[in-house]
User: Fold these one by one.
Assistant:
Number 1:
Amino acid sequence: MSAEYRRPVFPDVPEEGLFGPDSMIWKINRENVVLLGGPAAAILQIAHPSVARGVIEHSQFQYDALGRLRRTLDAIYAIAFGDGEEVNAMAARIARRHEKVRGEMPRESGRAGAPEAHSSSRPSYSAFDPDLQLWVLATLVFTAVDLYERFVGPLASEEKERYLREMRLWGVFFGLERSYGPQGWAAYHDFYQAMLQGPLLGSDSTSATITEALVHPTRPRWLAFGMPLMEFLATELIPSPVRERLGLCSRGWTRTAWRMLGRGLPPIYRVLPAGLRFAAAYRRAVRRWPQK
């Protein structure tokens, strides 16, 4: 391989955890409705050819899409809501897993088309590549904010800035330095939009292959019953032209259903009891957090 990346060194974590009740991460990531964006975020991640190559060569994603999504969610919640011991244990587990995710890109693949500040001609990939981590983090940040504002309520500009700052700290425990790449909401949003509208995402057939496995899962068998919902959510949340490159097709009825969901779900969701509305990891964290 032509490039090597060092295993990250993690900062000290307070005993009670990285964040707390006043953080934007707790405010946004506790909402179960944000999980509706999970399939779209996962597909946007693997739309990047290098991420797709790492997934298809180092996981059983084609046969265990649900398991991979669940493990990703466990990692997200552990670092956002866990105590110091949980955060450190999960970060070490992620680092061990990521050390193995490296390899050579096929000759016809590559990373041409990425924004100039983040492009590279390296014919290789690594889970420690900060450009890839920057993209993965962006899919999580902007999908979560999108779902929150659709179904919970609007966020002020200052709240979005705080959320991004906290998610950049969160990203350190996946190996992404806080100082790397665009800083601030506007700059990161511009980067995200440039990626969505550029030629790179969905340019490799491997991305479409993994997308098909995600929206049409075969294992476990019962998951096939949820296939229409998975495909519906991914299709309507992933913008053009990436959506079409991945073989997803927005139709009149899906757009109508999405608009109806946007109108009908928020008033119901906002009055749900905490046990249904908020993630279990958040509710455990609230009970654990020192009372001041």
Number 2:
Amino acid sequence: MPTPKQTEKLAAAAAAGRNAPTASTPGPAEAMPAEYWQAVLDDAATDAGPPGPSIRMQRLSDIQRHVLRVSCRRCQRTVEIQKADAVRFYGAQTVWKDVGKRMLDDTCQQRTGRYEEDGCWPSYDAS
């Protein structure tokens, strides 16, 4: 428990802090500072990921990995296929996104009867 003298010092420090000018926050009608926009642009650049097309948009012939994996975000099921088998079954020029969706849909566990809701929600990966 602070002494009365310490309490007075704390109160004086708090009062001095309240009287000190504070940086104003821009309102909805005011322009945002340049530092804010630079921070937004810098953050967006880090979220962009590696340059080049994602694995799901590549053709099977362009993928360097040997095992291709697609999992469902809905039912948590994972299906794997070797790249050589995928090329043999679907063709070298087929896009991995189409192959993975087809693999999941062939064995889908979630059937509701509505076209919009049926099927798995694929998440593409390659190992």
Number 3:
Amino acid sequence: MMPLYYTERGSFFLGDSYEILKKDFFQNYQNKINLIFTSPPFPLIQKKAYGNLNGQEYLKWISKYATVFRDLLTPDGSLVIEIGNAWERANPVMSLLPIESLLELKKSGNFFLCQEFIWNNISKLPTPAQWVNIERIRVKDSFTRFWWLSPNPRPKANNRHILVEYSPSMKKLLRKGKFNSGKRPSEHNIAEKGFLTDNKGAIPSNVISIPNSGSIDGYLDYCKKNHIKTHPARMPFKLAEFFIKFLTDENDLVLDPFAGSNVTGFVAEKNNRNWISIEKDNDYALSSKSRFNFCLLPEVEKSDIKDGK
């Protein structure tokens, strides 16, 4: 159980996450992990380079992680998992497999469903191409769901850690110091005091609009220079940071069992969280080292990455 590499706060393991998490070594982490944040392969019809299953095979594969995840989480810990949309083969209709996967995870792990989040990737290309671009009978599928699960109906969470900037109208309202309070047509009774309190930011929505179009990236440059395969579905830093800040405190432990290029580990380290990441693809694992610039890895030489050492 030697990690492929490690930093002052985290360790990266190379291999199949289910097999690794079942090893005796990880029994030491039972009830110790505060957040499992991950994006496993989606149940897509078209095969991707990072590997993906479909149908009942996928459902069986993803559900076997349920009890493993639950055993690792602290009593007030959280599992946040991205399960992307899927379509039926040769038909312009959506598959229910992603929803079935969620339900199976919830049932098998005896989890509570805390909240659903929508990631709206505003820069996503039009897909599925056949139905959107060619036949023009559907609109582009630009969002995926992040499901927040927990063994506890009240897991650790604090939305004060993820406040967003007030809108110009709210800033004006706070400066003005006056608000038209009272009962609304919806029958909500709006008190003046609550709306005139400056809470240093607004509470964000569960619809998160972040583009995933960054092309100026040291990661890409590093992979190109060293002839290493890049991960095709890298997560935006801000998306991982949203959940890590929301659901953990500094020095908490974050796990990503499908780490890819290790955005989760990088963002966790940046925000003073401890982390464990696992990835089975050798190239993706090796390329992820570039995110840390080797400043925390004095025993690793850059030449070792290309050679696979």
Number 4:
Amino acid sequence: MAKTPGVRQRGRIWYIDYYAGGKRYVETVGPSYKDAVAVLGGIKNDIREGRWFPRKMRNVPFDKLADQYANLKKGKTGKEKLPYIGQIRKFFAGRMVQDIGVLEVEQFKEYIMKLPKRGGGKRGASDVNHHLDDLRAILNKAIQWENIERNPAVGGKVQRLPKPPGRNEYLTVEQAGRLLDACHPHLRPIVLCALETGMRKSEILGLRWKEIRNNMIYLPGERTKNGKPREIPISERLMVELQRIRRHQSKGNVLDTSGIVFKAVRGTPSEDETRRLKVLSIGIKDFRSAWKAAKERAGIAPGFHFHDLRHTFASHQKMAGVDDYTLMELLGHSDFTMMKRYAHLTPEHKRKAVEMLPDWNSGNILGGGIPADA
């Protein structure tokens, strides 16, 4: 039998021997000489056409890669911290990682853009971009694990959607007061905390007593968006509310310092709160329904988001004259770019700024003014 160069036998097993990218590769095929010749021919053809990958990069199912990546992103509760991976898994199910190129990423982008939101309507640019970000992260991990050599979701080949201008929604002092008055007793301290600290909803709802000390809130890096710890002073108004909650939770016993501050139930409402509940005829089923009901009673637009309380905090800090660096530290921003969205000021604030101009004629400059015929 005439032997094909690069095909050799050891015992009953056939091997193939070839060079690619300046490296030598020797691979086991099996007991069939014809199979070894066919495999080597296919590899050489792939090398010529630029489609060749080392064996460890071949035939890796995307489902397996996604599962491995998801396992790395599980928190202490065992749940994935990947809100967008579901649609990624669904679109690439049954495909091999090595078969995903720029075209497939572009097709995924179009798929997400056309996918209706859960509540109806089109998906926003941020939502589409978040899906692309998670896909890019998964494929970056595939490079690290030597499943692929290049990431088709990076390098500008697949354009991200342009981000819309940041939301500038914020409440006036009068609107914020109405909203607080309209809140269920269990929701009110949460809203107050957002207005007084500018913290994100996840940071507030996850706040623990051990993170509160010396009239400060100390957020650890694992609970902040940018992964950096943050210190936030507690105002007197918020401190009074926190002390009230603490009394309800402790009930004379030692308080669990690792416990959540804003629990669903915090003791029996006072007589005033009970009377107020009867007047408003409300009940708290979950955070979303309570928030929606409070906005309706306060006459706040339905499109006002809880996150806009963070904008409210920042806007009023800005109008009070707080410098950008301090505001950046309070909000946990890593640069000044985000500060631009808080440049909007109320007409009253702008009017006060103009009224602070000096009396130009007070110094009798130019003898009372320039003559009209000058």
